[in-house]
Design a protein that fits this description.
Length: 360
């Protein structure tokens, strides 16, 4: 389990935020006044160079970030109608981890150079904390004051992404991890299954699209059945490696002949993965007495996961906060929100570099 981290909230500040933890170069400029947020800009450049490789190459991602980040910064300043030489900000929030170290290095280095130039402090932000707090934004509009949701006193956060699958308790503005994947993250499993099915990267949306078709079609007698790893374990941990391996062996013994075979495999995989996640989440809420579920991460946009959680919420009497679709994948806006709620500015650049892969 992680040690307890405590959240704070500043009263008012204007933050420029930077996100480069993987293959998305993101910069946002946001103004906060108490519980209100005004989004002035939020720019994301997604690298397409990795699509032919079935995954992200760290060295290649670093090179693309270095090339892209000056243009993304200029575009974010232009959209916010501020000068890139003096955007008149109070602080810079930057992702310091977890993530790909070469990618993180680009964002941290850019933040340090900008901090020195503008003489403003840096707020180091945990990438997963950004996903956790992203669901506090109820809608996505530019240049309008938006009331942020209050952080519930008793809640569970479910973070589901390409790099992480975590269950986290939130108690009176304190949170700690109570469950995590012991191997592959669920988003990683989606991408690996997509590769087995011959789908393009990133594979999660493509697998889900096939699975959705499978729920419309009548069930076939030959439809596969895959395991639900750790479904009945007494802890809140999860595992997706065994599920992925079961699919690998199934395809080896039952070669894919047509699109219907792909649909059947995709549906059963998604059914298995989501069933485990939802049941673990329900048990975490039940055992902790939580009243809310905060959903975050790229897989939070999965329609089947959302529909199953909606059913669970009605049956078990808990409310769900979803992140708006525009900030489910990696972005700088969620880093700004996390920087605002966990405001610990610094100009200790050496420590910032040393902690450049901070883990929640």
């Amino acid at each position: 389990m992680s040690e307890v981290r405590i959240l704070y909230r500043a009263q008012s500040m204007k933050i420029l935020s930077i996100e480069t933890s993987c293959d998305d170069t993101g910069i946002s400029i946001v103004e906060f006044v108490d519980k209100q947020i005004t989004i002035l800009s939020n720019i994301v450049n997604t690298q397409t160079i990795h699509s032919g490789y079935g995954g992200v190459f760290p060295a290649m991602a670093k090179r693309e970030h270095i090339k892209n980040i000056p243009d993304v910064y200029a575009e974010a300043c232009e959209m916010a109608k501020v000068s890139k030489d003096d955007p008149k900000i109070d602080a810079i929030a930057v992702t310091v981890g977890p993530g790909l170290e070469p990618s993180l290095w680009v964002g941290i280095t850019f933040a340090i150079e900008l901090s020195k130039k503008l003489n403003v402090p840096i707020i180091p932000v945990n990438h997963m904390e950004g996903h956790l707090l992203s669901s506090l934004l109820p809608n996505y509009e530019f240049n309008k004051k938006i009331n942020l949701r209050d952080l519930p006193e008793h809640a569970i956060s479910l973070l589901v992404s390409g790099g992480h699958t975590q269950l986290i308790t939130i108690e009176n503005s304190k949170y700690k991890i109570i469950g995590t994947t012991v191997d592959d993250a669920v988003g990683e499993a989606f991408d690996k299954v997509a590769r087995m099915l011959g789908l393009t990267y990133p594979g999660g949306p493509a697998v889900s699209k096939l699975a959705e078709q499978g729920r419309i079609l009548p069930k076939q007698n030959s439809s596969p059945t895959f395991p639900r790893p750790m479904l009945h374990s007494k802890d809140f941990n999860l595992s997706f490696s065994g599920l992925k391996t079961a699919i690998l062996y199934f395809i080896r013994d039952n070669p894919i002949k047509n699109e219907d075979d792909k649909i059947a495999i995709a549906k059963e995989f998604e059914d298995a993965a989501i069933e485990v996640i939802v049941k673990k989440t329900i048990r975490a809420i039940s055992e902790t007495g939580s009243t809310h579920l905060l959903l975050g991460g790229g897989v939070a946009a999965n329609k089947y996961l959302q529909s199953e959680l909606e059913i669970a919420g009605k049956e078990n009497n808990f409310e769900i906060y979803y992140p708006v679709k525009e900030i489910t994948s990696d972005n700088a806006l969620m880093i700004a929100i996390a920087g605002y709620f966990n405001n610990k500015p610094t100009k200790d650049y050496d420590t910032l570099k040393a902690n450049g892969n901070l883990k929640l």
